[in-house]
Amino acid sequence: HLNELHDYFPNSDWILNLRPAEQWAVSVTNWFELRMRFRRAFKGSKKSLSKIYNLHTQLIRDFIQNHPSHRLIEINITDGEQAARKLADAFGLDVNCWSHQNKNKRTATT
User: Fold this and answer.
1) pTM exceeding the 0.85 threshold for the entire prediction
2) Fewer CB atoms < 10 Å away: N or C end of the chain?
């Protein structure tokens, strides 16, 4: 679907939310429907989920590199205030526009 996004929005900015792959795998396993989809599709152990995350991240980076009309803004969501500052600077908005709204207390590390 990346090519479709490019066709419809050829000059768009892309935000790539990052975090340690292992944290992402834990988060996915906390969402029942996602967990089941990944398990069916990829035989989803946490190790294989981490691999999927890393492959996806590289796929996005490669896609943007091959489509220079886009700007890629990479945000490590575990960086708190630094992530908010990076987004604010990228879009010319107040840093207070960005916050963490769906923090899961069971798995949160920040």
Assistant:
1) no
2) N
